Amino acid sequence: MSQQGYVAAPPYSQAQPGMGAYQGGFGSGPTQPLYGHYGGPPQALSAPSAGMMKSSVSPAASVPLPPGPSQYNPNVQQNGSHPQSYPAPPAVSAPYGQPPHSLYNSMASPGPPPTQQLTNQMSSMNLGSHAQGLQSPPPPASSVVQQPFQTPPPSTMAPPQMPPGLQSPHMSPLMSPPQSPPASTAMASQSMAGTSMASMGRPFPGPPPPGLGGFQQPGLGSAGQPGYPPQAGQFGGYMAGAHQNMPGPFTGPPQKKLDPDSIPSITQVIEDDQVKQGGQVFTTNIRGQVPPLVTTDFTVTDQGNASPRFIRCTTYSLPCTADLAKQCQVPLAAIIKPFASLPKNETPLYVVNHGDTGPVRCNRCKAYMCPYMQFIDGGRRYQCGFCNCVNEVPVFYFQHLDHMGRRVDFYERPELSLGSYEFVATLDYCKNNRPPNPPAYIFMIDVSYNNIKSGLVKLICDELKTLLEKLPREEGMETSAIKVGFVTYNKVLHFYNVKSALAQPQMMVVSDTAEMFVPLLDGFLVNYQDSRAVIYNLLDQIPDMFADTAESETVFAPVIQAGVEAFKAAECSGKLFIFHSSMPTAEAPGKLKNRDDKKLVNTDKEKTLFQPQKGVYEQLSKDCVASGCCVDLFLFPSQYTDIATMADVPSHTGGSVYKYSNFQVETDGEHFLRDLRKDVQKSIGFDAIMRVRTSTGFRATDFFGGIYMNNTTDVEMAAVDCDKGMTVEFKHDDTLSEETGALMQCALLYTTISGQRRLRIHNLSLNCSSQLSELYKSCETDSLINFFAKSAYRAILNQPLKNVREILVNQTAHMLACYRKNCASPSAASQLILPDAMKVFPVYMNSLMKTAPLVGSTELSTDDRAHQRLSVMAMGVEDTQLLLYPRLIPLHNIDVNSEKPATPVRCSEERLTDSGIFLLENGQSMFLWLGQASSPDLIQSLFNLPSLAHLQGHMCALPELDNPLSTKIRSIISGLLEKRSNSMKLQIVRQKDKPEMLFRQFLVEDKGLHGGASYMDFLCYVHREIRQLLT
Ligand SMILES: [Zn+2]
Description:
28 helices, globular, 34 strands, alpha/beta
């Protein structure tokens, strides 16, 4: 029956598209009124019975496994494996053919600029000012949606302010004996996941008596230690003397010393989950099922909900009402990584092709066909799970239902049975209703003095010769469809014609950077395979051409503008790889000046250090997104470069920013090349627009990521790669039903690396409950902390750091106090009781507040802080988890014969031993720490040196020695480098050497080097806040 289809496109095909260029087809316009308008019964159409709803919405646990790929019907295929069965993409014989010519002419009215043969001398030829119409329109007042940091809504709880007068009574040492069985039967019967501190061996003591250090109330920090200005924070870590005697608060009589092992440990939680769920299959057929931790090694089988690799949520059980949500203050959010890499043993996404008809969508809310559509009326109609609208089934899509009410082709159609899949998009989803051209990569190399002198330019050119052979290609295709182009620049831009027919590349110089244009079309963006000889020639010549340069000034915004113009002219999307050394100070649009000012740190104006300069770059971001131009910035600074501004365009276009301070080829070259290789070869989609639809009762209200938003619902990205995650916050607008649950559908329209327009759909169903205990039980700490990191990092653009940190602590206390009040069984107030799923949340939160952007220390580089802020905004859950809790792996006692990965220990100085060797990594930095009493045997095995004293500084890799220990440790390091999305530079530090400070700042359970409390102190502080809230 279904075979007859794919031809008819009766009345429905006209309805959706046509709301402007291509967004209409995607559904921007018509869906607007969806929210809040359908609170009543579905219009005149009978709702299906509860039973019917249930069968579609909460898949039974007994759903059989979906069939293998071969069982899908012929027009459904595994992603990329049979490209020939697609409708062939339209032949694009001459991407720069006729239309661009006219375009070109209109751009450069004086006629095609002369070109000149490239010679070794490379006499520059300046093309004067062209084209009036190219000036950018004035930037809009504010095109980027910035929303205020979520302030804690008023709640029934007392404000967390602690009046100084209350200090003493509450600070009496309360070393309560373990309350009989605190987390025992009563809690179990409530099916509560609470774990009290007492149940973990020891009770948690109350706050310390005054005078013993410990905590300080907000606003009383006048007695700060040198280097820890009073504003730095609100924790006891800042109180003079607090840490002279660590762990101060707990050492004095009459307290017993609190065993650090008794407070919840992230490494233990990770290990326990690995033991429990590691190596197992996670089947996504159950609504609201909490997945294993991101750190756990597991396999996913898609049976109707998106894999946690694509979507993770802060909780898998939403509170039914807005009031409950407000009461607990647990953020409701999803972190979506639409292009997440899948391990080899998991099935890639299937691609569904409905031909000219395009995907079947709900007439009202435009949701795409998915497992949450309930077929009724013998299969002739279906009810949308999102808006409840009842739709006619298009004739071509009709299929009979079985006795369960399920379509008999259920397992043959990914869009009926799977959580994630793709649709081939029709022309309605393409810009100007034309199929897109394959994307292009433009390599733009700053050839000013610094980059030439450091050897960077030669390094890049040499690498590109081999790297360009490995451009990403569609599976099954012999070569990459991605075009390449080359630009070098300092104060002026040099474009290169590398057309395959040329014997020598040709250079054209544009010196009028105020009105940037691309002086050539034909021959600028080429197929690498075709033009390989000319490109080789060019890459050989570039380092020599500029070898004697004295030019130290650069432009920057015009470089990006040139890329945008090139993509516009070629009518394609793509990515710019910009290799840049210094702040752009040359006279040109986007010229920057040094505005770094450490005096602003810890003042209300500190936020300006994170804010980009407005104007040129703001407009540029907008242009880039409109043209599908993603910008990756590789920065090689030797001083302040205003990263807050320079990274503004990359951070709004789905790009990445890499920073190599004081770059030296010998020590940083390989590190940079690893990044470049990963970046060029990443799986990626271009010119993307994403929409998150939800079932009635809640909706997506806020978005965080390397994104751009023109309106409140469409998330635009010039590109999105496998490492980029968007965080989406949800709010209620009605009551949610426990029975139907809460559904979300993320639809991402994008252009593939071969130039095919596709829709990638991820569906996820969550539970809803009127019991807060369900919410706490279904929380995911790693996702929560991702949300908090992003919302805090955005908030510091508008608010003083101090406020942001206060909000974070207050919200932490609120969430935990609400649990205590509503979900935990009664116990002594002196006990800290944490929900099991959130028991390590305070460690992460404390670590977050000690990160460079939030810490407010003059010792930190403004650029580093801005860089970290922007990097985190685009991170998925794995990356924020690792960043906020580094892996600290002991290597001195490693079993060289074991396949089992070494077990990390807690990130605290206490775990280090003088005779130990430890590896620490957080996805951004990597250290090998050598204890001062390391065994000479170990040093000999690793370094081929008789003792530590012989170790030279600046070593950034272990020598390749032929012994089991060396082999084992090098393989651990290379395994980590392989696994992480970025390269990390290995830094080797000896205990007590000065560089050890760099390492110590990653021991996140300890007091922060630049301010911030130890984990223990923070936990005590939070505990006290909770008690305040509960009294
Ligand atoms: Zn609908």
